[in-house]
Write a structure and sequence with these properties.
Layout lengths: L6 H23 L26 H18 L2 E6 L5 H10 L3 H4 L7 H10 L27 H9 L5 E8 L6 H6 L13 E8 L9 H4 L2 H11 L2 E6 L5 H25 L11 E6 L9 E2 L2 E2 L18 H12 L3 H4 L8 H4 L42 E4 H15 L4 E5 L17 E2 L11 E2 L5 E2 L3 H13 L3 E7 L7 H14 L11 E6 L16 H7 L6 E4 L4 H11 L6 E5 L4 E4 L3 H10 L1 E3 L14 E6 L1 H17 L5 E6 L17 H8 L5 E5 L4 H6 L9 E4 L10 H7 L4 H11 L7 H22 L4 H4 L15
Parallel strand pairs: 1-2, 2-3, 3-5, 4-5, 9-12, 9-13, 10-11, 13-14, 14-16, 15-16, 19-20, 19-21, 21-22
Antiparallel strand pairs: 6-7, 8-17, 18-20
Family: Belongs to the XFP family.
Pfam families: XFP, XFP_C, XFP_N
Cofactor: thiamine diphosphate
């Protein structure tokens, strides 16, 4: 029985745990003499001692017992290590299970492989101290604390046979994301989802002080978790073999409870609320089994065990002796044979094949990924005849498209949104699915049910992290949020990007579905919310990612948005940032023209300017972003009407990375294509959705990059009218005309009159909005004048 350790299981689990601890210490300290075939010398020790011992022994203890449970039950299991710097424990586990050698053939499961394993840890050309992307079996690095539970919950959604065991460090438990993550069980349906088993590892200490939960009365900790809806199981101590017996029993009880919950739900017994999922509270000493006292100071069970308990081994012979005694205390002769391979006793604790925890395909989700069935975008398009003659809520069309993506992919696609699905005009998805909801319902609730698969929770951390766990285990989705609040989880975007960047260097990591982030309710149209909601900073964050990963799309209308969405949902291992507002906006391109425009990433709009292609224009008006595109088209019309002799070219950029050079980004326009759009020497007045510096960064290295004069968001905002926002940030049509007159290669007669008129219009606007509380009628109701358009886009 899984809950009862017989003598053979006890010997196997304990040997495996000792072997993992030995390998962990070796990774932190040694570069040679891995099996201690001779007494340790200072030259066997690394010149720099980096890594974290204190949390590793608890992680290995849980892993050892979890492997035994898997052997007895056949449970598909994903292990996530939340405590920071727990990497050596998980690397040791994968080496013992021989998955590390599968991924890195040079690190063989023998003495030479062990030596390589030790030398590479936290060393130049080696691996980091976290359970990073280089660690087989991992989807969670733990470098930035707080996300282990959200990744675990995302991994098991629509994944009914998977158990995600998430070890929550007690330091990690103090972070805001982790505090919010306990709510995941309110969205987990045992009839169709897998299960998450949190293990709260209360070893008592952070890097230099106690942890909050470890110092609370255990009854208060239990009440806290019970208040979230968990069934609490507790185990603690440091006595052996007693802790082995107690933890095996608790782990088996937790697993049996999970299986019972799932059996009832899958047998047709509808769950009534949150079913009381188990959580394990594990109390063990920090640095368990490590040095007890060093230089007269207690180490084991204190914060001093957090990193390197013996820091002077290269200089202090006494510390070197202590290190050798410590390592020999695990009796390595019982754990490794003459060739340095794990003995049969150690290996007997390992499950077989893909059931080995480090070999689970759920931690290499690209192996499980299946393409989405995507409906043709034309079925959701806005009918566009004359460019700009129609207004529509672009994201509403996207909602209709995503509704049918849900219908065609009932177990492999989800939308995650912080309570804003309807607000962002994506509410059509509720025609295909309710919101996921396991808590109580009340009269008047709309689209709430346990069977729902649209996920709404008022936490960007949860939504972002759930989508990460969902995609890293092979499924597809979208995280939609207000633009300004994307910065709440911006560091998660950065961390996920780093994971994808490093994964590209590992041939055994299969590409996973992309992280698709839709930003709407944007800076330019948060009229009633005001300055706090006006911030396009995530674009800047995305631009800091390596070129192979980040993509930023700024579709100007609904049909372009549909084409961008279709593209993004087909991509792999990317962060796709899509930015467009939800308010009614002008529609410019037909379906065919939109498809061509998105494929090119940037195009001339001949219908908007006066450039006939026979010669270079006098000025280029460029734009990227929906609101600033409207201002650019309006500015071009003013110039065309009032200075018809001035040759203007209008360029719209939908794929921001096209501005890069090909050497800097795979989407970068080649020199010929860039010249076709922007010429070699003509000045470019560029209206940009985000911070102006982003465009300057992107065009760096292009011919005469200083000719790009960028207008964008400059942190000027308040509760005001839509047009006043662009005026305040100096990106209005009148400002763009003034810039064009300032930078055109020639100025026809009448330029000074137009300049004075624009300045007068700005003054008129300022007075009008204060008096009438709305924009000037000619601005508020403006649409482009009809023209003979010919081609809608050109290269």
């Amino acid at each position: 029985m899984p809950g009862t350790l017989d003598d053979d299981d006890l010997a196997s689990v304990d040997a495996w745990w000792r072997a993992a601890n030995y390998l962990t210490i070796g990774q932190i300290y040694l570069r040679d003499n891995p099996l201690l075939r001779r007494p340790l010398r200072a030259t066997d020790v690394k010149p720099r001692l980096l890594g974290h011992w204190g949390t590793s022994t608890g992680l290995s203890f849980v892993y050892a017992h979890l492997s035994r449970l898997v052997r007895h039950t056949g449970q598909q299991t994903l292990y996530l290590a939340g405590p920071g710097h727990g990497g050596p424990a998980l690397v040791a586990a994968s080496w013992l299970e021989d998955t590390y050698g599968d991924c890195f053939p040079a690190v063989t499961r023998d003495e030479e492989g062990m030596r390589r394993l030790f030398r590479q840890f936290s060393s130049p050309g080696g691996i980091p101290s976290h359970a990073s992307v280089t660690t087989p079996g991992s989807i969670h690095e733990g470098g930035e604390l707080g996300y282990v539970l959200v990744h675990a919950f995302g991994a098991v959604m629509d994944n009914p046979d998977l158990l995600a065991v998430a070890v929550v460090g007690d330091g990690e438990a103090e972070t805001a994301p982790l505090e919010g993550a306990w709510k995941g069980i309110s969205f987990l349906n045992p009839a169709r989802d897998g299960a998450v088993l949190p293990v709260l590892d209360l070893n008592g200490w952070k890097i230099s002080g106690p942890t909050v939960l470890a110092r609370k009365d255990p009854a208060r900790v239990r009440s806290l978790l019970e208040g979230h809806g968990y069934h609490v199981l507790e185990v603690g101590g440091h006595d052996l073999p007693g802790m082995h017996h107690r933890f095996a029993a608790v782990l088996a009880e937790a697993h049996e409870r999970i299986r019972a919950i799932q059996h009832r739900a899958r047998s047709g017994q509808a769950p009534e609320g949150v079913p009381g999922w188990p959580v394990v509270v594990l109390r063990s000493p920090k640095g368990w089994t490590g040095p007890g006292v060093v230089d007269g100071v207690q180490v084991e069970g204190t914060w001093r065990a957090h990193q390197v308990p013996l820091s002077g081994v290269a200089q202090d012979p006494a510390h070197l002796r202590l290190l050798e005694e410590w390592m020999r205390s695990y009796r390595p002769g019982e754990l490794f044979d003459e060739q340095g391979r794990p003995t049969a006793l150690v290996r007997s604790n390992d499950p077989e094949g893909p059931l080995r925890i480090s070999a689970t395909p759920h931690a290499n989700g690209g192996l499980l990924t299946r393409d989405l069935v995507l409906p043709p975008t034309a079925g959701y398009a806005v009918e566009v005849g004359q460019p700009g003659a129609t207004r529509a809520e672009s994201t509403r069309r996207l909602g209709e498209y995503l509704r049918d993506v849900y219908r065609a992919n009932p177990t492999t696609f989800r939308l995650f949104c912080p309570d804003e699905t309807n607000s962002n005009r994506l509410g059509a998805v509720f025609e295909a699915s309710d919101r996921t909801w396991m808590e109580a319902t009340a009269a008047g609730d709309v689209a709430l049910s346990p069977s729902g698969r649209v996920v709404e929770v008022l936490s960007e951390h949860n939504c972002h992290g759930w989508l990460e766990g969902y995609t890293l285990t092979g499924r597809h989705g979208v995280f939609a949020t207000y633009e300004a609040f994307a910065m709440v989880s911006a560091s998660q975007t950065v961390q996920h990007g780093k994971w994808l960047e490093e994964a590209e260097n590992l041939p055994w990591r299969a590409p996973v579905p992309s992280l698709n982030v839709l930003l709407t309710s944007t800076a330019w149209r948060n009229d009633h919310n005001g300055f706090s909601h006006q911030g396009p900073g995530l674009i800047q964050t995305a631009l800091t990612q390596r070129a192979g990963v980040a993509r930023v799309y700024l579709p100007p209308d609904a049909n372009c948005l549909l084409e961008v969405a279709d593209h993004c949902l087909r991509t792999r291992s990317r962060i796709n940032l899509v930015v467009i507002d939800k308010q009614p906006q002008l529609q410019y391109l037909s379906t065919g023209a939109a498809r061509e425009h998105v494929a090119r990433g940037a195009s001339c709009w001949p219908w908007a300017g006066t450039d006939d292609g026979s010669a270079d224009p006098d000025v280029v008006l460029a734009c990227a972003g929906d609101v600033v595109t409207m201002e650019t088209v309006a500015a071009a019309e003013l110039l065309r009407d009032r200075l018809p002799q001035l040759r203007t070219r209008v360029v719209n950029v939908v794929d921001l990375m096209r501005l890069h050079r090909p050497a800097d980004h795979p989407h970068g326009l080649d020199e010929f294509s860039f010249r076709e759009l922007f010429t070699d020497s003509v000045d470019v007045v560029f209206a940009f959705h985000g911070f102006p510096g982003a465009v300057h960064q992107l065009v760096h290295g292009r011919p005469r990059a200083d000719r790009f004069h960028v207008r964008g968001f400059i942190e000027e905002g308040t509760t005001t009218t839509p047009f006043d926002m662009v005026v305040r940030n100096r990106v209005s049509r009148y400002h763009l005309v003034l810039d064009a007159l300032e930078n055109a290669s020639r100025l026809p007669v009448g330029a000074q009159d137009l300049r004075r008129w624009c300045l007068a219009q700005l003054e008129r606007h300022r007075a009008y909005v204060v008096e009438h509380l709305q924009d000037l009628p000619e601005v508020r109701d403006w649409t482009p004048a009809p023209r003979q358009t010919g081609a809608q886009v050109t290269g």
